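re the bet — no i am not wrong, look at it urself. input seq straight from the record:
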Amino acid sequence: MLITGASRGVGAACAVALARKGARLVLAAKTMEPDPRLPGTLIETAQAVEAAGGEAHVVAFDARDSDACTELVERTVERFGGIDVLVNNAGAIFWAPVANWSVKRFDLVFGVNMRASFALSRAAIPHMRARGGGHILMMSPPIVSAALAGKAPYLVSKWGMTALAMAIDAEESDHGISASALWPVTGIRTAATENLGMGSASEWRKPDILADATVMLLERDPAHARFRAWLDEEVLAEGGITDLTGYRCDPNAEPMPMSIELVDPGWAARNGRA
């Protein structure tokens, strides 16, 4: 399994959750050495993976470098003899009206989100075909059209990941390859949400909710798991988990839908969560 953005947050949580299942993981991100501005490194995630019973190999890479993306997949295959799972988790976020975006910022967001997901998926598909199948998972939201104001380039880059998964799933189903997207209903406590002031502890859940949903999705036989833009709560409910109190950052506060409302305003009201 290859996970990008694995030095902290959702990527690190996914790595540890998969390690508990005995996964052999290549962990990829930019941060190898401690950064005073951001907690977490690939080395720390690797240590947590091994403590959880998995096997970890770390690779420092720049998601914006397409050659580095191809090399990362090749190193995964060289290390473990193939690749069964690719989790495109690395992401860049910036919100502003279109007039306030610089081209440099636009290129950064699209480079990390959409372009890297394309480059990594494209490199992984032939190896998955050779093994008779595999999973590609995008950390991206359902595609809707009502929430663009103030964050259009960011959302378009994330929706592009979802569209890419939809296409890959249709194109590669005969090869046993499944591709899907996964998105949280509520805000998730990560370095990005904290640094950008996107809510507070009472409004967030722990990254573990996405990690547990990821495990449930990847345990399915990819030959029969067709595309869907999943929400974390939906995945867990199908797996019989409806009590989500353990995922709260504030044990005394149940978070209201926030992440899904950013891409689909009105979701909470339509689903009895307003």
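see?? Strands lie at 2-4, 24-29, 55-60, 85-88, 134-138, 177-183, 187-188, 204-205, 229-231. told u. also The longest strand covers residues 177-183. so pay up
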